[in-house]
């Protein structure tokens, strides 16, 4: 029984460390966006990130066009499976003008959460271990308007 309890504590501690590392890298991602620092932003992203070059180019273009401020409202790791993990994020994006010059660009910006269609959105994001560090991998769900959930008393 002692072995089982020690294993549960060890796993809980490892999960908490992973969760904290993922939160830190996503906070660094938001800070890099707020500073319009594309190099720092890309340092938070996995080298295996799908369409990494497209994401970098779109970030550079967006930061030239708009003054945006990102804020993480909620963060909850929902799954850790080997070198991959998923988390639920609530993000507020403050910007005066959400327009883009094409539907393709608007869809890419929304789908990567660089410029969501709504001010406050909820979405799922994945992380991947690069070497020994967690990095942002990709947004895995469509950002949807966030509606705070009321807890039901039982």
Order of SSEs, N→C?
HHHEEHEEE
Query: Helical region count?
Result: 4
Question: How many DSSP E strands?
Answer: 5
Q: Gap between N and C termini, in Å?
A: 33 Å
Give a description of the structure:
By secondary structure, this protein is of the alpha+beta class. The protein has a single domain (2-145), classed as Nuclear Transport Factor 2, Chain: A, CATH 3.10.450. 40% of the residues lie in helices and 29% in strands. It has helices spanning 2-34, 38-43, 52-65, 103-111, and strands at residues 69-81, 84-94, 120-130, 133-139, 144-145. Strands 1, 2, 3, 4 and 5 form a five-stranded antiparallel β-sheet that branches. β3 and β4 form a beta hairpin. The radius of gyration is 17 Å and the shape is globular. The two termini are 33 Å apart. Residues 4-11 have low confidence and may be disordered.
């Amino acid at each position: 029984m002692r072995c089982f309890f020690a294993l549960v504590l060890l796993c809980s501690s490892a999960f908490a460390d992973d969760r904290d590392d993922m939160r830190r890298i996503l906070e660094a991602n938001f800070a890099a966006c707020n500073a319009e620092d594309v190099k720092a932003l890309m340092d938070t992203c996995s080298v295996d990130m799908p369409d990494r070059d497209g994401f970098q180019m779109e970030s550079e273009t967006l930061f030239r066009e708009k003054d945006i401020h990102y804020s993480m409202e909620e963060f909850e790791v929902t799954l850790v499976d080997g070198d991959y993990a998923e988390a639920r994020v609530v993000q507020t994006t403050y910007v005066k003008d959400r327009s883009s010059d094409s539907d393709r660009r608007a869809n890419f910006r929304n789908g990567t959460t660089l410029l969501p269609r709504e001010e406050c959105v909820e979405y799922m994001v994945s992380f991947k271990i690069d070497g020994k560090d967690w990095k942002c991998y990709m947004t895995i769900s469509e950002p949807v308007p966030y509606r705070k959930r009321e807890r039901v008393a039982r």
